[in-house]
Design a protein that fits this description.
By secondary structure, this protein is mostly helical. 46% of the residues lie in helices and 7% in strands. The protein is built from three helices and two strands. α2 links the parallel β1 and β2. The termini are far apart.
Length: 82
């Protein structure tokens, strides 16, 4: 907590982390992605900024939802609305 308080008036940097593997099965590219993001966050930290690295799950499951919607459109019936 002390480290955050020491930088409370400093310029801030935020890197939102996306879902770990929303685009299929996990592979070495996911590990590379995490390492690169860690390097970026540490660079800004050592540059004197107040850094945040929050997880972001806003698009988690989107490829699955799109695939489901594609299958659903084939079976979709038109609804009558009065």
């Amino acid at each position: 907590m002390g480290m955050k308080l020491n930088r409370k008036d400093c310029e801030s940097f935020t890197l939102h982390d996306g879902p770990p593997y929303a685009n299929g099965n996990i592979h070495i590219g996911h590990a590379l992605n995490k390492v690169l993001k860690d390097i970026i966050v540490k660079y800004h930290y050592f540059d004197g900024k107040s850094v945040r690295y929050p997880p972001g799950w806003d698009c988690h499951g989107l490829p699955i939802e799109q695939k489901f919607e594609g299958k659903k459109k084939k079976k979709k019936k038109k609804l009558c609305v009065d």
